Each structure stands twice: as C-alpha cells, then as structure tokens.
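Progress against Task 2.4 (sequence-to-structure conversion) is shown through the following example record, which the project officer requested during the mid-term review.
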Amino acid sequence: MTFTFFLHLPKTAGTTFKLACHRALGPRLCWWVHRLPLPGPPSDILHVTDLQPIVPEMGVRFDMCGGHVQYSMLPAEIRNQALLISLIREPVSRALSFFAYLWDQPQHPLAQKTRGMTLFEALQIPAFRWAVQNQQCRHLFGGLRHRDQILEGSSVKYLIGKTDHLASFLDALEQSGGPRLVIESDENRSRPDYRQILRAQPRYEEALDLLRHLNTEDLEFFHSFPQWLMSAALRNRHPSVSSDEAAAGQSAAGE
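Structure tokens generated for the chain above:
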C-alpha cells in the first residue's frame, strides 16, 4: 500500500472519512492537528502537531496521515512520495454548512465574531468572508492558478473526489494503491434543519449570490470534473483507473 495523506477541507465529510480510516488502519493512522491536547475525550489515534517526524515513518510505522493541512504546508518528502487525497464539496453548500457549524461552536473565533448574525450580515465580516471564499482551491493548490502546474506539470500523485460521489472515490482510492475504506455512518456535525433556518433569514438570496461571486474559482474547479480527478503522475502509474475516470465522466454527461 502507498503511504497516503488526506488533506481534510473543513465541512467535506472529513470526520466521517477519518473514522473510516481509523477502522481500516488502526494504529497505522496518525492525524495532524493545530494544537494539543485535543478537547473532548481521549482518542486512540496518534495526533501530531509537526509533520516532519512523520516523514521517516511513512510506510514503516504509518500507512496514512491526515488533517486540516494545506498543500503548501506539506514537507517536500510527503508531496513527492505520498499519495495525496482530498474530498471537495459544492462550494456554496460547504459555506452554508460551515456557517451553521459555527452556531454550536461558541469557542470558535469566527463564532464569536458572527454571533447572532444572519448569513448576509456575517458575510460583511472580513474574517468570515475570507473563510468561505475559494477555500478549497486555496487549500489544495494555493489557488486555482496553480492547479495545472501541480496536477499536470509535476510528479505529485493527487486524487481528488467529491462528497456526493464518495463510493466511486473510495473505489478509485483503493485501485490507486491507497487503503480500502468503508463508510458505515455519516458523522455530520451541523444541525439537520440548518438550511430551513437559513432560508428564513432576511436577505438570504442575496447572501447566496454573494457566496457564488466569492467562490468563482472553487465553482470552476468543482464543475471541471464529474466524480473524481487524478493528477497526470497518478494517471500514468494507474492507467486502468484513469480509464474508469473517463468512463465515469461519459456516464455523468449522459445522465
């Protein structure tokens, strides 16, 4: 199995995915976090705040690592040797889910800045606006302008899927040398009725328009592939999987 690194974007089913990784890999999984100790009950997943010590343990002690890590934060050895994977979500839906998530996270700095506000009001706050603006492309590539350089002009082995096509992504992950994962439950941490609450807010439709405007890069990237996307280096290594990618695209286009 190829050592795999999961770049976890907030509000893209990452908690569900992390649990599946833990079930599959047990102690051979580690996870990067901003700070320790973690809030809440103890975890039997090893959490680290520095990725550099993980480098010599790739494929030795650990088969996989993950966390809220941007591509630019990865040590060069992980970029060049690991299978990098990530999941993205329709950008406006991700932003709505993130805003609702803040309602139940009173210690989050952005929750404190936006407490009691409507979505439209929160979008006037620069810090919140930044948090929901093209975050996915920034996280994965350092911005959309670097996408082709990383995916097509480098040796980086990258597999990117969509949360609404999780099953096909998991198949592609296993065929690309990553772990075999099974999703058993959805660990959604947002309130189940948050969309109904948001729709009832004043200026909600204006807020949606603003989110679309703020996420032109993320929307372009999201709609640029049907179910999952492989970098050139990964396609060359697993041509049969990349053929499946093309077939998936033709199937989606015909639906």
